[in-house]
Amino acid sequence: MSQLDASRGESGLLGLLVMKASPAEYEELLLRTRLAGAPADVVRKTETSVEMALQIDNRLRLLDRRRVELGELVDAVEDFGEQQALGPLLRTLARRARRLTHSDAAYVTLCDEQGGAAVAASDGAISALAAEIRLPAGRGMAGDAVAHRAAVWTADYLRDTGVTRSEELDGMVVAEGISALLAVPLRTAERVLGVLFVAERAAHDFTPDEVARATALADHAATVVERTRALEETRIRLAFVAGLQDRLRAEIRTEREAADCGRQMIESALAGGDAQELVTTAAKALAGAVVLRDGDDAVVAQYGDLTDVSAEEAEEVAGAVLEARTENRGVHLPSGVSALPVRAGGEDLGALVLRGRRIRDDVDLRLLRHAASAAAIHALSARGAGRTRRVGDEALDALLSGAPCGEPPAVRQPATPLGLDLARPHVVVVVRIETGQRGRITMWAAAHAARTGGMKVVRDSHLVLLLPGDEPGPVTRTVAAELGRALGRPVKAGGAAVSGGSDGVPRAHQEAVRCLEALTALGGEGVAATARELGFVGMLLGDNRDVGGFLDATLGPVLAYDAERSTDLEGTLAAYFAVGGSPTYAAEALQVHPNTVVRRLERVSQLLGPDWQKAGASLQIQLALQLRRVRDSLEAGDPAPAAAAS
């Protein structure tokens, strides 16, 4: 007897149900009944019983499957609850959705503030595009699921003409090889947080049961997602508040330290501490190099590495100091240079310079201001130097007015810091003061005069400087260049050498003024010169009309060569210019061979330089030749010869 016969003998169809027999076993039971020759009514009853048993078996199998699926759903909800961060939670949701629906892939998108959705997690994806896709608001299946707050699906996405399309989702479907697609909203009572996609790579008609399971999973997950996002936002806010508290505590601590440091510097200054102590304290507190300059722009004290300062950096610092003092405000450059004016009661006392560190916040600025206040207290003790500067200005003004050499005291006592020994070479430099530039020019002049050991005074809309120097030209050009850089525009300057002690100062001043007026009339920007450098124009401007000096400057090397070698280069030049610059005609006039004239002119080029035949130099030489003939004729008592045309 077979097992089926035994089972049938024991319990019949009930035994098959208990054993969860397959449909084939029920069919075998019915077949055996028919083959056994059972009456027709028995066969019919058996067929009815088998049909009912199969229905009961299907119902039991469905209940088992739903029990398993319900267990999966419960496990998924428990798994969601264990996640503390949004990223792991979304990845768990994608994995659980794929497992619960037995699908090929699952994707989770979250809505942003603009209403669009971006893929935040996936499971079963095969392309990198899935992680980068962003679905626009209100478009495609995701837009439909969000708008209707209900699931939408298709058995074959690419062939289904009734599905709402979007280019972005189309691209992901093609890249992932997807056919069937189910979109379920992650919804709460108030809003839709995103969309859960379940995908099959073969055509598949999603059953209502599959849609229900995916919807139930999405609804449970939406609540956890909302809670997790709220917790993450709370944690971020708490971290921000904690960080803000830490920063505020650090700022309060830093401000207290800055205030204590500033109070110490001011108390030290009031107690008579030296400037070096102040500068050292400020430099250590600000972590940079600090320099204190007085009203004459001289360095009073410094701390820090200042040995690698280039010429460009030094010029930048000088410009910042000048701007800070003239405009009475702090100047902070991108290069890390800061300059603060040192003032007391409106009186300019110098500047405090920080180099090598940018001012980062108000605390640094307050600390630097504390240091400037302490520096002002130090500088007040040097008011005597300011009085000496004013006496020096009055002394120069008196000299320009023709005061006796014994007055004023600043000139009579060369041992004083601003005293002058006019027995040594000096230069007068004059610069015209333009409208609105008086303050900056005066401050720069005071610093320059103090640095070079000279004097300055503003007189008749001109800045007048009396400076030590052997050569008036270089001194004048230096003044024009440095003042031009400080003002940010070209500057004209006229200069003249002082001769004859204090009595020569007014004459040099007048000559420098006339030279400046000549430069203005001649035009050009940023030019500086002396009357001597202007050639015959300068000779006409000069008070002493130094014809001999002009001749020496123009023809000196040629005259000396003729005197030493008994040659006649001077005569050759005169003949050359007289015939319009032709060596051939000059040779005929001199009755020599043309090659002789050419060699003599080559010698002239060696003596006067290769540019002597250019227009300006040629005019100077011709004028010098004419003046020499006139002077020689007057000394010999003969009438002056007529000037040859050239």
Automatic annotation (TrEMBL):
Annotated ranges, domain GAF: 85-235
For this protein, the record's SUPFAM superfamilies field holds: GAF domain-like (SSF55781)
- Per the UniProt record, one Pfam family is GAF_2
Q: Which residues form the signal peptide?
A: none
Which domain of life, per UniProt?
Bacteria
Cite the InterPro entries for this sequence. CdaR-like_regulators, CdaR_GGDEF, GAF, GAF-like_dom_sf, PucR_C-HTH_dom, PucR_C-HTH_sf
TM annotation in the entry: none
Q: Which family does it belong to?
A: Belongs to the CdaR family.
What the entry lists under PANTHER family is as follows: CARBOHYDRATE DIACID REGULATOR (PTHR33744), DNA-BINDING TRANSCRIPTIONAL ACTIVATOR ADER (PTHR33744:SF1)
Protein name per UniProt: Helix-turn-helix domain-containing protein
Classification lineage = Bacteria, Bacillati, Actinomycetota, Actinomycetes, Kitasatosporales
